[in-house]
Amino acid sequence: MAKRKKKNIGVCLVTILLLAIILTYNPVSIRIMTVGVAVWYRIDPAVFYRLIRTESSFRSFAISPKSAIGLGQMKESTALYVNKEHKRGLLFVPVYNLRLSACYLNYLKNKYNGNWSLVLAAYNWGESNVSRRVKNLTIDPHKNYRDTFRDIPETWNYIGKILPDRKKA
Predict the structure, then answer these.
(1) Residue 69: phi, psi to the nearest 5?
(2) Bridge partners of residue 63, in order along the sequence
(3) Largest alpha-carbon pair distance within the chain?
(4) What domains sit in the chain, N to C, each tagged with a CATH number?
(5) pLDDT tens digit sequence for 6-53
(6) CA R_g for the chain
(7) Among residues 9, 120, 23, which one has the least CA distance to residue 73?
(8) CB 52, CB 71: distance < 8 Å
(9) Model-level pTM?
(10) Among residues of the chain, what percentage have pLDDT more than 70?
């Protein structure tokens, strides 16, 4: 009888683990987590949702040709920059990846005076590239800087996909 109980407990634990994995990586759960993380980190949920959709199409195991990983398509080096305690492989964990992406966005938002067009340009093209491009500008939080990146089609299109017309700055 004791063997049967141990076997039943083992089956229950495996079932619970499988359910947890299915719920964690379920496309609907990912979308709910995306909105929840945005609210928690005080980021416009619609902007964060479109950013994650644009970056990974809500695929937790997405890997770009440039080795960006997970929902927010973050590189390991950026993850270490955002979180000194980062451990390799954690970018595949949905909530962790979303939280790091949100923290990085808030860092960029502070750096670029709350200007979303510059925040998104930095997220896409790189913080150093954007900083060099705007180094002599006084950043207006309400100005649309999207055209500053017209010669970088990927970044110019990226900003357009994520920001609605009314919120280009």
Answers:
(1) -120, 140
(2) 69
(3) 77
(4) 2-167 (1.10.530.10)
(5) 667 778 888 888 887 777 788 899 999 999 999 999 999 999 999 999
(6) 19
(7) 120
(8) yes
(9) 0.86
(10) 93
